[in-house]
Amino acid sequence: MNLLLPSPDPLGVLASTRGVVLHGRFVRLSPDGAAGVAANIQHLTPPSPAWGDDLHFAGDTWETAGWVLVLDALNFCFWSEHAGRRWRVARDGETHDGYWALVAALRRSVDEGYPLWDPGFLSQLDLQTTAHLLRPSDPADPPIPLLEDRHRNLVELGEGLLAFHASCGAPASVSPVTSFIRAGGGSAVRLVDLVTTWFSSFDDTTIFEGAEVRFFKRAQILAADLNAALTATGDPGLTGLSALTAFADYKVPQVLRRFGVIEYAEELAATIDAQILIPAGSRKEVEIRAATIWGVELIRQELERLDRPMTASEIDWALWQAGQTTSADDRPYHRTLTMFY
Question: What is the reported pLDDT for 223?
């Protein structure tokens, strides 16, 4: 298969995942499937995550940015091991699960007076308080998965922001969140570099056949979310969003499989369909995520050929939205316990 590497690839995500796809044993890409998706969406207005809804927080610029940092420090693994039951949070008479339950829980926390944008508060969080912030609305529902990992991520975020602020010699009148975001110079790529350098919980990499593979799922989605949140407050937002790749998670590959963009070997298909756990960092899991990156990239390149350009993150958002609606063609998504997606 001829995978054309675009230039530039400043994050190295496409370059590092290319070899995984080319040497894949369990996952293959279908250029015809990618072309079919491109043909179907070429007349769509490029979608983007909305921030002007009733759930996402919008306050002062630095508070909004801090809230988004918290959101994406926790934005992973919402599927449940409890048959027929999921972690859920209610707000304004509507009960949410998955990502939207996280948004609702963090809005609830702000309503209850918790300063989620304050790194000092985050750095001193204990596990009990984190459990309270992320509690299900109905005590009969299961707790959020990987609570201990989420707690560690919040503490690391608070401590890292304070350490970065101190290293910059920034005045006390400037919030640590502001000094961190300003250091990115308004660049999405620079922000991803910063967040993956300063916070291990965002450094989404692995080793495949002796070489580093980069995914940076939550770091990249942070850049996209921060851009959406800041522009909603009237801020100019970030530049360089076209350099972002797909956000390799578990919903987007499910949709790509539905549309025939990625195909699984019989052994892997049976594992996924039986909802058997696939270990994080295993060859099968790395192949799924790499194929997700390149499946979206093939769609992007085909749209470019059709003179209907969309960024990879816009295509990812459209696919993720499609994944929120069930289809008769749906097969299960792969199950991996990980804090990276």
Answer: 97
Mean pLDDT, rounded, of the chain: 94
Token reading at 276: 């058997």
162 Cβ contact partners less than 8 Å away, ≥ 6 residues apart: 119, 120, 123, 176
| Total number of domains constituting the chain | 1
Q: Give the 3-state DSSP-derived string for 25-80, with helices as H, strands as E and coil as C.
A: CCEEECHHHHHHHHHHHCCCCCCCCCCCCCCCCCCCHHHHHHHHHHHHHCCCCCCC
Catalytic center residues: 249
How far apart are the C-alpha atoms of 285 and 73, rounded to whole Å?
21
Residue 94 domain flag: yes
Residue 5 lies in a domain: no
On whether residue 96 sits in a domain, the answer given is yes
Q: In 233-325, where does DSSP find H-type helix?
A: 251-258, 266-273, 283-305, 312-323
pLDDT tens digit sequence for 178-228: 999 999 999 999 999 999 999 999 999 999 999 999 999 999 999 999 999
Q: Name the token pair of 205.
A: 């990499």
Find the domain containing 97 and state its range.
13-323
